[in-house]
Amino acid sequence: MASSVSGTRLDNATALGWYRQIVMIRLFEEAAQRAFRQGKIGGYLHVYSGQEAVATGFLDAFRDGDKMLTAYRDHAHALILSDDPNAVMAELFGRGTGLVKGKGGSMHLFDAAHGMLGGYGIVGGHIPLGVGIAYALRYQQTDGIVHVYLGDGAIHNAAFHEAANLAGLWGREGLNPTLFILENNQYGMGTSVERATAMTDLGAKFDSYGIEHEKVDGMDLEAVLECAHRVTQRVRETGKPYAVEAMTYRLVPHGAGDFLERYRSKDEVRQWRERDPIGLVERKLLEAGVVDEQRLGEIRDEAKRIVDEAVRFADESPEPPLSELHTDVYADTAG
Ligand SMILES: Cc1ncc(C[n+]2csc(CCOP(=O)(O)OP(=O)(O)O)c2C)c(N)n1
Ligand SMILES: [Mg+2]
Questions:
Q1: Is residue 2 part of a domain?
Q2: Long-range contact list for 259-267, CB < 8 A, 24+ apart?
């Protein structure tokens, strides 16, 4: 379907900025995977490769005062909102110059100044927090909206159902607008959607709570941008919660320890690779005559330089000083 919202087509110079962004996210994730294997990143690591169009599209409609939360696959969201790849990479490396001073790591990225309220490792645990933040925003009489990103695995968690119930019930009067972005990448770790639920139309689960919803092709940045701007405007205007199920695919293993991927066939992954969001954007930009191959290559080189610099910065940054072991661990209520 042609975009009905102006400014979300991949047929103009602005689109090159989105292209640079999704390429940078992909290269960042690949660099993070390499650094993990080299032992430079501790803890665990889940990368976003294949899903870049979802965060890039929805966060394009994010405004000052809005808030967002997601689970542990959070690097892209932090890169976009912080616009500081050095600090994000340094955080993965556990360095004092990291986004949260090296104390959060991959799964707990946080950038409150830019509306990013985490990064969470407990599946589904952040969903009630998101609804609670929407409640707080209403209480404080601000007009921001809240993006709550969740996975297809998280939707079966009790926390989702309790939170969605309250969002639907209190909706317009009690909460600021809440936009649920369900990133259906077809698997929760190694469990396919079909093996996790008898009702595989996941977006329809929002019907139980009176929350309207739609699906979007999460591999197609142009489709995500159009959807994101339209539904964001809708929740801002109506004040009511809304949900989008972005149909997407993780082109890489679930996490750093998922070597064999026994739960899916190589053929399935190969088929989805043909719809790699980056390849789709490239084809659209070339077909629209916005760029030629050479310019695309230059943009990829620019993105690579940014990521190389982030790795260098992280590598050379100091670890947090021992004297800071207890700072920022608990809220300071003394003053
Ligand atoms: C409460 C809880 N149960 C189990 C886990 C282990 N676990 C980590 S990731 C994951 C799958 C979640 O899948 P999904 O929500 O689809 O996110 P995706 O990894 O696909 O991005 C599980 C079960 C956890 N972190 N928290
Ligand atoms: Mg999933």
A1: no
A2: 261/190, 262/190, 263/187, 263/190, 263/191, 263/192, 264/187, 264/192
Cα-based angle 176, 181, 186 (whole degrees, multiple of 5) = 160
Give Cα 13 to chain centroid, integer Å.
Answer: 24
Per residue in 218-257, pLDDT (tens digit) is 999 999 999 999 999 999 999 999 999 999 999 999 998 8
pLDDT at position 2 is 39
Q: Which tokens hold the place of 8?
A: 């979300």
Residue 232 CA, chain-centre distance (Å), reads 16
Count how many domains the chain has: 1
- Could you tell me if residue 331 is inside a domain? no
- Report pLDDT digits (tens) over 151-206: 999 999 999 999 999 999 998 788 899 999 999 999 999 999 999 999 999 999 99
Do the domain assignments include residue 327? no
Separation of alpha carbons 335 and 332, rounded Å: 7
Q: What is the pLDDT of residues 70-111, one digit of tens each?
A: 999 999 999 999 999 999 999 999 999 999 999 999 999 999
Tokens of 121: 């490792």
334 vs 332: CA distance, rounded Å: 6
Ligand 1 pocket, residues with Cβ under 6 angstroms = 71, 73, 121-123, 151-154, 185, 187-189, 254
Model pTM score: 0.96
Confidence (pLDDT) at 1: 35
Instruction: Using the mean position of ligand 1's atoms as its centre, give its distance from the Cα of residue 43 in Å.
Output: 16
For 216, how many CA atoms within 13 A lie in the half-sphere containing its CB?
30
Percent of the chain with pLDDT over 90: 90
3-state secondary structure of 68: strand
Instruction: State which ligand 1 atom lies nearest to the alpha carbon of 150.
Output: 15
Write out the residue range of the structural domain in which residue 188 sits. 14-317
**Do the domain assignments include residue 279?**
yes
CATH of the domain at 230: 3.40.50.970
Cα of 208 vs centre of ligand 1, distance in Å, is: 23
Residue 141 has pLDDT above 90, yes or no: yes
